[in-house]
Amino acid sequence: MNTYKFKLILSVAFFAVVFNLKAATITWVGNTNNDWNTGSNWSSNSVPTSGDIVVISNASASNQPVLDASRTITTLDLSAGSLDLNGNTLTTSSCSFTGGELSNGTIISDDYDAMENSTFNGLLVFYKNGGGNNDLNGGNTFNGPIAIVNNDNSRIRLAVSNPDVFNGVIHFEENSSGQTEPAYNGNNTFSGDISSIGSINTVSFAAGSGQVVITGTTTTYGNPEFRKLTINTNSQLSALVNLTIDVLRIYKGTLDMESNTATVNTAIFKGGTLTDGVVNFNNVDSMTNTTFIGNLTLNKVGGSNNIVQGGNTFSGGVNIFNSSSSLWRLANVTGDDFNGNVDFRENSSGQLEPAYNGNNTFAGDISTDNSNSVISFGNSNGFVIIDGNSFQNLVGNTARTPIIKRLTLNTSGILYLNLTNLSITTSVSFTSGYIQTSNGNELIFQDGAFFTGAKHTSHVDGPVIKIGDDAFIFPVGDGAFYAPIEISAPANTSDAFEATYNNAAYSNTSTLASGLNNVSTDEHWILDRIAGSSNVTVTMH
Questions:
Q1: What is the largest CA-CA distance in the chain?
Q2: Mean pLDDT of 376-384
Q3: SS (H, E, C) 306-354
Q4: DSSP letter at 182?
Q5: What does DSSP say about strands 472-474 and 485-487: parallel, antiparallel, or unpaired?
Q6: Which residue, 14, 18, 396, 508, could crosslink 368 as a Cys pair with Cβ 3.0–4.6 Å?
Q7: Of 187, 150, 134, nearest to 165 (Cα)?
């Protein structure tokens, strides 16, 4: 035979053999046992090698494969049945999961051609080390600790068509410029801890129209970015890191910020609990039937006007700030309940309107001290009800006197005006307890404002100012003794009078003005006209 022809035939035969080796598809049949390394368990009657395509597709096989050692193949196709990696590593060029179960080990692959309708159990790690973008349909269930690590410059996207279920701890990691995007579409439920690390990009959850729905006791670690995060659980999500969230929804359960900060575009609070941290948001679309606890700051930093329903409970030291140029109105329908101290601030040009409607109860201190402008309570038909059972402070700044339209005093303690006046524009209802005022920290009744129910057990202890042209009885007393003083109507709406009662003798009881016969040594009132020129008739009760 011609030497050249002989060499050519050998070369063709060699490449044909190599091609056949690389293209060989070997299917698990499980005739003998569950050992990967037993040839009779495979359709080829031989153990797959690094050039083979492995197919596991028979759920009815009496024996399902268990990997005996770390191995390399070309492709893994799991569509039914199960594969137990047994703590080993399976390295492939590509893999496809369209059904069945995978458990306990590591998959290293360039491409993930499919990941849908499958179950992943135990401690599993998936590495993507090359290939192109992998967009995976979803509908999978992940049980146990799972890690998905993208070491490539291309994308891996989960739940493109159907949501995934994560019943255990899940860790996502980006170690190159390739993006990792779990929970892309649908309501993806997470009942275990969530961890993510991105060396270049952050791991972006729910980047499409999907949602991350917390259904169990969950803690976040690393630097996740949640486009849409929903808390709907009987337990809680603990944020051990700062969070970036496009849409935050809380329906049931607790989001504990653990003294961290959430940066939120849109917040929706329809139940559950938010506690201990800072939430900076642009818009709050709903705020009703939710509990806010602990050292918590709610700060509107942008967006459009937000008018929220109310019916919320605030406990602990809660800060409510409007740092935007838009309106934020609280309790538009139902009153809120403030069980602890609360600080209201306008930090920019946007208005903050607490207690807009309904009965709004306050059991702790109220502060407007650091607000850039006046805070006005109850601008519609809302009532501010003081119902603490001890000493409470209204802390503010006389340059920006807070306004309460309707105030009800229903406490066994005392409300102190501290570093501020308080302006009443409609009414005060005295049910029980006292308002303690002092010079420079007066209770001011504006023109047309009135009071009801003042008595020995409920009145103002200290100076009261009345502005306007109404006849008025000043609800003043000293301690547990009520002693009002009355004036006839002044001539002008800008006229102002200030009255104080003291259940003790005046400092000078011997010098008598013309027309006076004697001065009481038991009690006295001080009535001053502080604005205008009207003369009024005075009656002491």
A1: 152
A2: 98
A3: EECCECCEEECCEEEEECCCCCEECCCCECCEECCCEEEEECCCCCEEC
A4: -
A5: antiparallel
A6: 396
A7: 187
User: How confident is the model over 172-181, as pLDDT tens digits?
Assistant: 999 999 999 9
For residue 4 the two structure tokens come to 């050249």
Half-sphere exposure of 249 (CA within 13 A, CB side): 14
Beta bridge partners of 266: 247, 283
| pLDDT surpasses 70 at 21 | no
Q: Are strands 496-502 and 464-467 parallel, antiparallel or unpaired?
A: antiparallel
Which two three-digit tokens encode residue 211? 């949602």
DSSP annotation string for 204-240: EET-SS-EEEE-S-EEEEE--EEEEEEEEEEEEEEES
Tokens 């059904």 -> residue: 99
Output the six-digit token pair for 163. 């949501």
Average pLDDT over residues 316-341: 97
Answer left, alpha or beta for residue 453, where phi above 0 means left and psi between -120 and 50 means alpha. left
Q: What is the CA radius of gyration of the chain?
A: 37
> What is the secondary structure of 472-498 as a DSSP string?
EEE-EEETTEE--EEEPPPSSTT-EEE
Phi, psi (rounded to 5 degrees) for 18: -60, -45
CB atoms within 10 A of CB 519: 14
* Residue 502 C-alpha from the chain's centroid: 50
Token pair, residue 389, equals: 């059972």
DSSP 116: B
Residue 409 is inside which H or E element, if any? strand 403-418
pLDDT over 70 percentage in the chain: 95
CA distances from 519 to 508, 510, 516, 527, 535 (A): 9, 7, 8, 15, 22
- Distance from C-alpha of 57 to C-alpha of 136, rounded to nearest angstrom: 19
Checking 406-412 for CB contacts under 8 A at 24+ apart, the result is 406/378, 406/381, 406/382, 407/383, 408/383, 408/384, 409/433, 409/434, 409/435, 409/458, 410/385, 410/386, 411/386, 411/387
Amino acid type, 41: N
* Burial label, 479 (beta-carbon count in 10 A; 0-12, 13-18, 19+): exposed
User: Distances in Å between the alpha carbon of 111 and those of 104, 128, 154, 171, 379?
Assistant: 20, 7, 10, 19, 61
Q: Please give the distance of CA 289 from its chain centroid, rounded to a whole number.
A: 14
Distances (CA, A) of 114 to 76, 87, 139, 160, 329: 11, 23, 11, 11, 49
The H or E element spanning position 410 is strand 403-418
Q: What is the pLDDT of residues 463-506, one digit of tens each?
A: 999 999 999 999 999 999 999 999 999 999 999 999 999 999 98
In which region does residue 156 sit, left (phi positive, over 0), alpha (psi from -120 to 50) or beta (all else)? beta
Distances (CA, A) of 204 to 75, 178, 183, 230: 28, 12, 9, 15
